[in-house]
């Protein structure tokens, strides 16, 4: 039994048009605690007709929601933010139970997720239009910014709360309405957010959370022309599929997909700081983060020093249930995730990599995995080109700055990159040379509500957070007013 103060936050129904619903058929999906395999509850596996009902409700709710002033919407969103923060502890418990991350990380994610609601409540008040010098006498040109309309969000299990608010908050602030389909592994965090949205006074239909089979729900959401936009965070393969499905109705899309982040340590770096940065960048959330360091590139001269200190720090990480005091690495999300880590390690070792620590399932059993470091990794190994999404840190060796940039860019992904250096000229050269949407310099953590999050190449389309994030939910309408001199 989960220990939460407000038992009404634990839901087993989905939230459509301001009401809680079972599936028409009564079908359910089980939600599993990855730390011990126990069942935490069930959620409805809804029918295509119920997805249509959610779209009907959203479409109907849109008019009244967009007609509110930005200030009125901001007041309601502010209330939602406050309720999320008041319930931070309970929401974190739900998250750790269904996702596995340490409770301290879960609390951090709740605050991070709430920060998008607070930020965009304010940002919605500053959606300014434009006037443009006209091209002829007696004419004026105006640019209006209008909400896109009914939006859908499909979100992943690795950040079960923040990936919802990062999409829903700018949408609602801009005057759009949103239907969210969370990952099947982590629907409880999403449904708890819906309960709090309800308490905050977000009107029926403005924010719905639906659960069930992803291909079925995805098809309904992408084929319905009333849904004007899809925002997705998840794997590149699923993102490509959804992009294709959205083509039929030419929807706007935002895609936040996979990464293959290089983490470069130059020989002028502060090595201790680089080790700390690499630990947090690689092992937070058990390595299941799209901006996690995926390849650690270390310059020849400092390779041995960095490797020695890094291995020591990795070996000191506490692996346990996320609820245990001091937990630093919880279980992985499921067995396929463990098998993927094993596959990548086996491939690397068979091609000449060296196991420096870890490398196998943890003695705690289930989906716990040892924090792992591989040395002498080379670009021909699968781990160099695939997103590991696990606690495996592969060390690559490089000689020159040019070689580091070339190795870093040698991937189809372009989400986040990191490097450590104390040379100002190098900071500019390398920042400009890296083909990535985000670059962390002398830091392993770059996520904040204040900055634009997103990637290039096959890592996605669009940006989330910051003042840029709200533009994803705005259409531009141009007015050409003539004959004003008559
Ligand atoms: N960029 C990122 O942040 C993430 C990257 N990944 C990467 O993807 C790998 C696999 O993870 P996985 O969970 O399978 O990622 P997916 O991309 O498959 O899942 C993410 C979301 O997409 C949904 N989804 C899956 N298939 C469809 C579909 N056909 N139509 C509509 N929605 C769909 C899922 O729903 P449901 O759960 O119900 O199937 C979930 O809500 C990971 O190992 C990692 O490399 C994974 C998650 C996040
Ligand atoms: O992994 C992701 O999908 C998002 C990363 C969360 C963040 O750091 O903002």
Automatic annotation (TrEMBL):
Q: Which residues form the active site?
A: 256
Q: Which SUPFAM superfamilies match?
A: ALDH-like (SSF53720)
Aldehyde dehydrogenase domain: residues covered? 20-478
> A cellular component term (GO) from this record?
cytosol
Q: Which PROSITE patterns match?
A: ALDEHYDE_DEHYDR_CYS, ALDEHYDE_DEHYDR_GLU
Gene Ontology biological process: gamma-aminobutyric acid catabolic process
One GO molecular-function entry: succinate-semialdehyde dehydrogenase (NAD+) activity
Which keywords accompany this UniProt record?
Answer: Oxidoreductase
Known InterPro entries for this protein? Ald_DH/histidinol_DH, Ald_DH_C, Ald_DH_CS_CYS, Ald_DH_CS_GLU, Ald_DH_N, Aldehyde_DH_dom, Aldehyde_DH_Superfamily, Succ_semiAld_DH
- What family does the Swiss-Prot or TrEMBL record give for this protein? Belongs to the aldehyde dehydrogenase family.
Q: What is this protein called?
A: NADP-dependent succinate-semialdehyde dehydrogenase
Q: What organism does the record attribute this protein to?
A: Desulfonema limicola
Write the lineage as a comma-separated list.
Bacteria, Pseudomonadati, Thermodesulfobacteriota, Desulfobacteria, Desulfobacterales
């Amino acid at each position: 039994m989960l220990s939460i103060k407000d038992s009404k936050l634990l839901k087993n129904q989905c939230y459509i048009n301001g009401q809680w619903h079972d599936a028409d058929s009564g079908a359910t999906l089980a939600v599993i605690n990855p730390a011990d395999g126990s069942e935490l509850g069930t959620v409805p596996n809804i029918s295509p007709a119920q997805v249509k009902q959610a779209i009907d409700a959203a479409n109907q709710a849109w008019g009244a929601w967009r007609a509110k002033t930005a200030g009125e919407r901001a007041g309601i969103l502010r209330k939602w933010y406050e309720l999320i923060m008041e319930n931070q502890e309970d929401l974190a418990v739900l998250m750790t139970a269904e996702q596995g991350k340490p409770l301290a990380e879960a609390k951090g994610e709740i605050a991070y997720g709430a920060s998008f609601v607070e930020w965009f409540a304010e940002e919605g008040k500053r959606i300014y239009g434009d006037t443009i010098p006209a091209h002829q006498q007696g004419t004026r040109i105006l640019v209006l910014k209008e909400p896109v309309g009914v939006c859908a969000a499909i979100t992943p299990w690795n950040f079960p709360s923040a990936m919802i608010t990062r999409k829903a908050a700018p949408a609602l602030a801009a005057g759009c309405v949103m239907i969210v389909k969370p990952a099947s592994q982590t629907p409880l965090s999403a449904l708890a957010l819906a309960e709090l949205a309800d308490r905050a006074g977000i009107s029926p239909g403005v924010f719905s959370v639906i659960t069930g089979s992803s291909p079925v729900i995805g098809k309904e959401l992408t084929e319905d022309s009333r849904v004007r936009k899809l925002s997705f965070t998840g794997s590149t393969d699923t993102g490509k599929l959804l992009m294709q499905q959205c083509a039929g109705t030419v929807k706007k899309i935002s895609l936040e997909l996979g990464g293959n982040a290089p983490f470069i340590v130059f020989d002028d770096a502060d090595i201790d700081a680089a080790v700390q940065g690499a630990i947090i960048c690689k092992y937070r959330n058990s390595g299941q983060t799209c901006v996690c360091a995926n390849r650690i590139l270390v310059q020849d001269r400092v390779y041995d020093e960095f490797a020695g200190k890094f291995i020591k720090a990795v070996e000191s990480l506490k692996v346990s249930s996320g609820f245990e005091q001091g937990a630093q690495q919880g279980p992985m999300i499921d067995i396929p995730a463990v098998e993927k880590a094993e596959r990548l390690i086996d491939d690397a070792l068979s091609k000449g990599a060296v196991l420096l620590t870890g490398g196998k399932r943890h003695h705690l059993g289930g989906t716990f995995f040892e924090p792992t470091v591989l040395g002498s990794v080379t670009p021909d190994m699968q781990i160099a080109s695939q997103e590991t999404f696990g606690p495996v840190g592969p060390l690559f060796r490089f000689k020159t700055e040019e070689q580091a940039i070339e190795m870093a860019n040698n991937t189809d992904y372009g989400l986040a990159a990191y490097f450590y250096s104390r040379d100002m000229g190098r900071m500019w050269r390398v920042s400009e040379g890296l083909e990535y949407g985000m670059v962390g310099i002398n830091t392993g953590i770059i996520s904040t509500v204040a900055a634009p999050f997103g990637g290039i190449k096959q890592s996605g389309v669009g940006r989330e957070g910051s003042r840029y994030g709200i533009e994803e939910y705005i259409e531009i309408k141009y007015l050409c007013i003539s004959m004003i001199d008559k």
